[in-house]
Amino acid sequence: MSKSTAEQSEPIHVEDDDHLNELVSEHAVVLVDYYADWCGPCKMLEPTVEEIAAETDAVVLKVDIDELQELAQDRGIRSVPTLEFYANGEQAERLIGVQDKADLIDVIDDLS
């Protein structure tokens, strides 16, 4: 297993807007999890997001909205958790709130 494949089996912490854009454009299917450390529902969703990173071909990105406030504002993130799905660099879906793992995998399968 190459190093880059190993890294993709767990969520990638986004550092800034350029990093996010680069990762979205480099991978076929991307799930972006906008979260905050103080957010209870985000903590509930975290194990699900980690399982999706490990079990699917989607690349999972984590965006801390407190750390990257401007990025979250630019993307119109008004509540957390917000999950955005990208296919081939284009936003395909946005879900807000805690989601069922099976529903998230369905979206990824539809985009793959």
Automatic annotation (TrEMBL):
Keyword annotations: Disulfide bond, Electron transport, Redox-active center, Transport
Protein name in UniProt: Thioredoxin
TM regions (residue ranges): none
One example GO MF annotation: protein-disulfide reductase activity
Record domain Thioredoxin: where: 1-112
Cysteine disulfide links: C39-C42
UniProt-listed Pfam families: Thioredoxin
Positions marked as site (Deprotonates C-terminal active site Cys): D33
Keyword Transport: yes
Domain of life where this protein originates: Archaea
PROSITE patterns xref list: THIOREDOXIN_1 (PS00194), THIOREDOXIN_2 (PS51352)
CDD domains xref list: TRX_family
